[in-house]
């Protein structure tokens, strides 16, 4: 590398201009230069490029490059050449703007000259640039010499109708059909149906046409709608004045709320948008309620029929149903629903509110003996107890039940049904006590017949629950459903209602309209007498007593003409 350095300085294709020597070249110098060129020709292009990059790095290295040259042990002449190149490069870097202006060609424009001679960005705006920017922003720019653009007149002539393909027409027709069907859906309320109908009507109004793109067109459209509103009387009786029709939201300017999050939540509440897992939760709750309601109705109707089919009077059937209810209460008691709520009052004290719903108690023997028959057999009551517990009482007795405070109260809801008419007697006999059955009422035949539907319904509910749990947070996830657990809850809920169901079925009015089923023949045959069916022309003929007075007519002519064939056919039918 040291032997090539003198040759590097003498190459003519280097980026730096050749250095001026202090003496005229001699024959030895020319010979050395010739030898160096031959040696360079023998070297490859990569070697020459690396040598050039080395020379450039030494020339543009600054003081560190000079130290490297001294440490390398070059000759004095080479050191002087390299130092002069380093000095020249540093001088050009310090006066870059002057060199750029001097080397700028005469054909360059003013913008090119300004960019070439501008001071490079140092990361901080100078005082001159700041003052110029503020002055430029403080004054509005003057309007140009060019006149404002006048919009071209709108072409209102009818244009040829755009042809649409069959697929596009079918897609549009399907969309319109679905929108119309949604407007007529039974699940929509009257207000939603009117709004949908109004949107469909607005499609054929002038406002449903394509919006104009010019300012004059928008102004004309706005004026047209304002005039229509004035004609409809929407601008009458409007309270005027400062702050009359202004709704100010004080929470929007609160410094303690995030403005972006507040407006986002407000938009979500206004448009009634809920997270996806809330929608799936509503769907799951709806399906569960539908399944449980159908299960309870089917079992109540079937159990009432089976208990009543065993015979006996109405009172014996009711007592049998109550005995099954007692057995169900002992084997499968109802669960007490308890819910605890925590609240903070105005003074900052935390209190716990317990809501407890107690199912109706079973029919006891003593109650049957003491209470009258109407009150003993026709009243179903459920009690809801709400107890408020202060934190001091809850901390003093955590294991015991919460004490009753002045804020505690109990709400009872009772359902009464009319008692059946009792025979009048001077000394009614006391009712016999109702004893529970050995086992609660079950019907394996009904369970096996309905098992396919129940299994499919439970699988559907579990599928919805699984998809809901995948989207819902961990605190809002729901357990899966079991057919055995659902049947047990159904039996426990329906057992106290069987007695009333049997009574209602027994006291329901009978259908008095005779239902005539489908039978062979025409319509007139269904209105025949009870003795027989409609005979048509084969029935017994009625003798006309006024035939002699009326005289011979077309009826008699027709009878005489075809009477023989009719008599023969009647004889064959009689045989």
TrEMBL record:
Biased composition range(s): Polar residues: 114-125
Biased composition (Basic and acidic residues): 29-51
Domain DnaJ homologue subfamily C member 28 conserved as annotated: residue spans: 221-292
Chain intervals with Low complexity compositional bias: 370-399
Region (Disordered): 16-65, 102-131, 147-170, 351-442
InterPro entries recorded: DnaJ_homolog_subfam-C_membr-28 (IPR018961)
Taxonomy, superkingdom: Eukaryota
Pro residues biased stretches: 418-434
Record-given protein name: DnaJ homologue subfamily C member 28 conserved domain-containing protein
Annotated organism of origin: Endocarpon pusillum (strain Z07020 / HMAS-L-300199) (Lichen-forming fungus)
């Amino acid at each position: 590398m040291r032997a090539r350095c003198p040759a590097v300085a003498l190459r003519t294709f280097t980026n730096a201009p050749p250095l001026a020597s202090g003496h005229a070249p001699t024959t030895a110098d020319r010979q050395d230069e010739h030898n160096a060129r031959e040696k360079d020709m023998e070297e490859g292009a990569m070697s020459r490029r690396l040598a050039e990059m080395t020379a450039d790095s030494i020339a543009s290295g600054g003081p560190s490059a000079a130290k490297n040259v001294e440490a390398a042990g070059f000759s004095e002449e080479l050191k002087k050449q390299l130092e002069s190149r380093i000095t020249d490069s540093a001088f050009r870097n310090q006066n870059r703007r002057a060199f750029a202006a001097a080397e700028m060609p005469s054909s360059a424009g003013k913008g090119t000259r300004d960019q070439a001679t501008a001071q490079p960005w140092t990361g901080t705006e100078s005082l001159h640039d700041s003052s110029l920017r503020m002055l430029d922003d403080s004054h509005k720019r003057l309007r140009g010499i060019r006149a404002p653009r006048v919009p071209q007149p709108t072409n209102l002539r009818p244009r040829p109708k755009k042809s649409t393909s069959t697929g596009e027409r079918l897609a549009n027709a399907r969309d319109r059909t679905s929108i119309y069907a949604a407007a007529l859906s039974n699940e929509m309320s009257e207000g939603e149906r009117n709004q949908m109908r109004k949107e469909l009507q607005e499609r054929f109004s002038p406002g449903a046409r394509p919006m104009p793109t010019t300012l004059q067109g928008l102004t004309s459209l706005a004026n047209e709608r304002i005039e229509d509103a004035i004609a409809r009387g929407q601008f009458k009786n409007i309270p005027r004045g400062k702050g009359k029709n202004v709704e100010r939201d004080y929470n929007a300017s609160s410094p303690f709320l995030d403005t972006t999050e507040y407006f986002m939540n407000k938009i979500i509440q206004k448009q009634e948008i809920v997270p996806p897992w809330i929608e799936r939760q509503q769907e799951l709750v709806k399906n569960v309620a539908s399944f449980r309601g159908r299960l309870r109705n089917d079992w109540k109707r079937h159990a009432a029929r089976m208990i009543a089919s065993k015979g006996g009077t109405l009172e014996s059937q009711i007592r049998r149903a109550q005995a099954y209810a007692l057995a169900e209460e002992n084997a499968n008691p109802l669960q007490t629903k308890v819910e605890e709520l925590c609240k903070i009052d105005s003074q900052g004290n935390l209190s716990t509110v317990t809501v407890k719903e107690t199912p109706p108690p079973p029919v006891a023997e003593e109650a049957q003996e003491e209470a009258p028959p109407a009150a003993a057999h026709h009243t179903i009551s459920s009690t809801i107890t709400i107890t408020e517990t202060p934190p001091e009482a809850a901390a003093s007795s955590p294991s015991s039940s919460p004490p009753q405070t002045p804020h505690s109260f109990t709400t009872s809801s009772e359902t009464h049904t009319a008692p059946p008419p009792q025979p009048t007697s001077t000394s009614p006999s006391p009712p016999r006590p109702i004893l529970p059955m050995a086992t609660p009422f079950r019907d394996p035949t009904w369970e096996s017949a309905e098992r396919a539907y129940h299994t499919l319904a439970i699988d559907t509910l579990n599928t919805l629950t699984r998809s809901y749990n995948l989207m819902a947070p961990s605190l809002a996830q729901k357990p899966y459903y079991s057919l055995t657990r659902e049947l047990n809850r159904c039996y426990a809920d329906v057992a106290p209602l069987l007695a009333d169901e049997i009574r209602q079925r027994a006291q329901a009015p009978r259908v008095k309209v005779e239902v005539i089923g489908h039978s062979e023949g025409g319509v007139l045959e269904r209105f025949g007498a009870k003795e027989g069916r409609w005979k048509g022309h084969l029935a017994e003929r009625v003798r006309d007593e006024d035939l002699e007075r009326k005289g011979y007519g077309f009826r008699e002519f027709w009878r005489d003409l075809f009477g023989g064939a009719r008599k023969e056919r009647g004889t064959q039918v009689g045989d």
